[in-house]
Amino acid sequence: MSEPDAQLWTRVRAGEEAALGALFDLHEARLFRHTRRLLSSREDAKDAVAIAFFELWRKRETVRLVDGSPLPWLLNTAAHCARNLERSGRRYRALLAQAPAQPAAPPPTAADESGILSALRRLPAHEQSVIVLAVLEGYPERVVAETLGIPVGTVKSRLARGKARLRGEMTALEASWA
Q1: Which keywords does this chain's UniProt record carry (predicted)?
Q2: 148, 129 in Cβ contact below 8 A?
């Protein structure tokens, strides 16, 4: 075990949380690679690493070091956590498969008296998604761009075109009321 690793372990054993964070920074990448090989889900691999470090903290008084390092213990614990996560995931999927299928909820039957929703539905799908996220949900253009995987400039142009089309449809609708 390297000298910084030995000092960190001594501080972890003494209950110093910052030392656990430093130990995490030191070994997290290796544990993640190990658990990623064992699990199909990236998120489950991250969870297995986090659980292993929680267990290291919880059991710090009884952890057996190998060649003076907690890394082998962490690798072994992360592997156990990965197997547990995989097993619980299989059980959950099996339970879902056995559950009776719920009938889909019927679409809302209330009439759109304003015509705005029907005008929105007539927009092309790419403009519709930008309008919904930016205008109705209130997300900034940058977030909309990241969510849809398109440049911010494309979001701006689709937003402008969509608003213009909606404005035209609403003007026509208002004219029909008179």
Answers
A1: DNA-binding, Sigma factor, Transcription, Transcription regulation
A2: yes
